[in-house]
Every structure is written in structure tokens, then in C-alpha cells.
Write a sequence for this structure.
């Protein structure tokens, strides 16, 4: 079991291997389809303007940081504060077209989601280094207990699920399923499944 504090140094990422249980502590940022598309189109495919405060903030938050594929259920309190009611992971493969560029540009060290990602993200994890953390699907309320504070939110115009929520977490439970050494549990499961299917079809 590993307990890591964000931002995460490279050597701690390299020490992780598929199957490792990790508890994350610190600031993470949620981001789904709209957020990834926005970052790639506005900050990677073209240079941001010098006065772009959001870009500067994301560069600070994501440098050595973690992005979470999550569409939370959020409660707004009378004093204006927000809290997470549910914070389960969403399917990650939709971000495969964007994720390698986001990892490299922002110096991400971790991506949280469910279902794993593809070969381009796996290669980015090797090059960066970075890892893919699998969060427990169906445990949205339990995971929300790890979210101790909603620090702020960006791009609320995308809607609550697609907005970029900046949250402080304590002992957020995840499992490494893609590491910086080129290993992916998801690839292994798929290979075994295909082998078993072939055996059944020829039986």
C-alpha cells in the first residue's frame, strides 16, 4: 500500500506497479470530455494568451498533479460553499484522443477513472512518467467521503458534471492499473478474454 501526497515526484510514480493500492492526498482536478477538449484546443493546439489566468492556474494545479474523470453530484450550501454528494469515476476511454497531450503538456503524474485507457495513454505514462489509477465504480458516495473540501470550480458553463472542480482529498482510494513501465491490467484482461473466446469458438 502506498500513501502519496500531490504533487507526486517522479521517483514515487516509478515505484508504482500495476496492482498497487494507493491512497491519494492533496489537490486534484476533475475533468471529463468538455474539459479535455477545451484544454487541448485552447492550450495545446494553440498558445494561450499571456493574460489567461485559468491556464496559469491549471499549469500550477496539474504540475505533478492528478486529473479525475468524474462527473460529481454536487450540493450548494446557503453560504455559497459546495460539497460533493457523489464522486464516482466515469469511463476513461473517451479521453484517449486527448489524454496523452494533456499528460505531457501539464506534467500530469496521475489520471483517475474507470475502465482503463488505450495504447497512446499507456505510452504517455511510460514517457512522462505517469500512472492510471482505477477508482471503484459504483462507490460514488463512498469516494465522496474522501473529498474534504471543494476549493473552487472552473468552467461552470460546461455544466456541473463537466465543470473542472478543484478538490482537496484525504486517503482517496485507488488501484494502479496502468503504470510507467508499460504494464496495463486492462490489456492483460483483454488478451485473456480474447484467448478464452477463441478457445470457446473452436471447442
Amino acid at each position: 500500500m502506498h500513501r502519496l501526497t500531490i504533487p507526486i515526484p517522479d521517483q514515487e510514480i516509478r515505484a508504482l506497479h500495476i496492482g498497487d493500492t494507493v491512497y491519494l492526498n492533496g489537490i486534484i482536478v476533475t475533468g471529463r470530455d468538455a474539459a479535455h477538449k477545451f484544454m487541448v484546443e485552447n492550450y495545446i493546439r494553440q498558445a494561450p494568451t499571456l493574460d489567461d489566468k485559468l491556464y496559469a492556474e491549471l499549469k500550477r494545479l496539474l504540475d505533478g498533479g492528478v486529473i479525475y474523470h468524474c462527473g460529481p453530484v454536487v450540493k450548494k450550501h446557503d453560504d455559497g460553499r459546495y460539497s460533493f454528494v457523489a464522486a464516482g469515476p466515469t469511463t476513461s476511454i473517451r479521453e484517449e484522443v486527448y489524454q496523452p497531450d494533456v499528460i505531457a503538456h501539464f506534467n500530469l503524474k496521475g489520471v483517475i477513472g474507470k475502465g482503463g485507457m488505450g495504447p497512446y495513454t499507456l505510452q504517455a505514462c511510460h514517457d512522462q512518467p505517469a500512472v492510471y489509477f482505477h477508482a471503484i465504480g459504483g462507490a460514488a458516495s463512498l469516494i465522496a467521503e474522501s473529498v474534504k473540501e471543494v476549493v473552487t470550480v472552473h468552467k461552470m458553463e460546461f455544466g456541473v458534471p463537466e465543470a473542472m472542480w478543484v478538490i482537496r482529498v484525504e486517503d482517496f482510494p485507488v488501484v494502479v492499473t496502468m503504470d510507467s513501465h508499460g504494464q496495463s491490467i486492462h490489456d492483460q484482461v483483454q488478451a485473456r478474454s480474447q484467448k478464452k473466446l477463441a478457445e470457446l469458438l473452436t471447442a
